[in-house]
Structure formats: structure tokens, C-alpha cells
């Protein structure tokens, strides 16, 4: 009888500990998910306004970019940069940055990779750029996502939606489809998953479907990254 009672007690203890472990994991997962307000606070410092200029410094196009490494690697949409003589960026804190290098611009995928000048280590708080981590798995139907961008220089916005399709062939290009609202000027900005990871780069809108917008998969951006 004592052995049975001891075994029962041990079994209950194992179940209790297992339940606590699952509860702790669930709480940890829940804590890593952000709503729109939290997402903006976490991500906006890594998002910047882009000015594409002609040789005479006339404004050719504007768009958005997102920093993906602390040393200044950044992503945007290739069509924002096309035929620009030089680029300027205005960071979220208002600092203007020039001497931006285009490391890659793939017109087929619309992905582009930039290199911002090295952060000014001599200025307090500027030793590294704020950056978004890149998601390493494909998005799924129905996932909640957020789009950030600059429809105007001093007007960053955030919108929220879902993944309508993780893959669609649009004019021969693979695209993510999302209901997160996108307006002119947000091209090149980030699509962010609910964990705060970069899930894609905003490319444009789909004219044949209302409120469905086009996003470049991160796999297209990763193909431009320097080989390790």
C-alpha cells in the first residue's frame, strides 16, 4: 500500500512539474508576442525615410528602408533606387545620413541591400544602429503582421493585417500577399511578424484586388547578403 501511495505521489509530482513547465513556456511565448503599440515602440527606430536624388540633387523618388544589422546593413525596395545618382536617409531620431552604398539591387525580385555609413562611435548612443532581426522561416496563411513606413518624411505610420498568402506568382515574381495597409512612400519598409522579426519588404499594391498588398519575401533579401 505504501509503495502504491508513493508511486501515486511521484506520478502526481511529475504531472505537476510538467504542467508548470508547459505553463512557463506558454507564458514565455505569450510574452514574446507584441501588439501594434508595442511593435511600433520596438521597431520604429530601425525604420528610416529614403530620398533618391538625381545628379543635380533634384528629388527623384522617396521610400522607406529598414536597418538589419548594428553596423548599418539595411534593406529597401529596388524600384525606390532605380537610376538614382545618390541616396539620403533620415533616421527616426531626425539625423540625416548620406554616403549610402548600394550593395545590391535586384530588379527581378525588387529586393535591395544598402550599407549606411559606420555609426559614429564618438557620439553617445550612436555606437550601433538599432536593427530588426530577420525571420528565418516562411510566413503562413493568416499570421498577424505589421507594416511600417514613411508616406511623408516626418510621418511614420504603422498598419496591421494578416498574411493572405505566403506565396503568389505576380508578373513572374514570388510575392507575399498581405492585408496590412500600404500607401505610397512605404515601399522598402518592413513587414514584421508578431514576434518583432522582419518577415518581408514592402513592394507595392495589387491593383486587381482591393486592400491586398505585395511584399518581397526575406529569402530574396537574403540572397543579396554578404556570404559568411
Automatic annotation (TrEMBL):
The keyword NAD does not apply. GO terms for molecular function: hydrolase activity. The keyword Lipid metabolism does not apply. InterPro entries: Chloro_Bact_Ser_Proteases (IPR051201), Peptidase_S1_PA (IPR009003), Peptidase_S1_PA_chymotrypsin (IPR043504), Peptidase_S1C (IPR001940). Keywords: Hydrolase, Protease, Serine protease, Signal. Its EC number is 3.4.21.107. Residues 1-28 form the signal peptide. Belongs to the peptidase S1C family. This is Serine endoprotease DegS. The gene is degS_1.
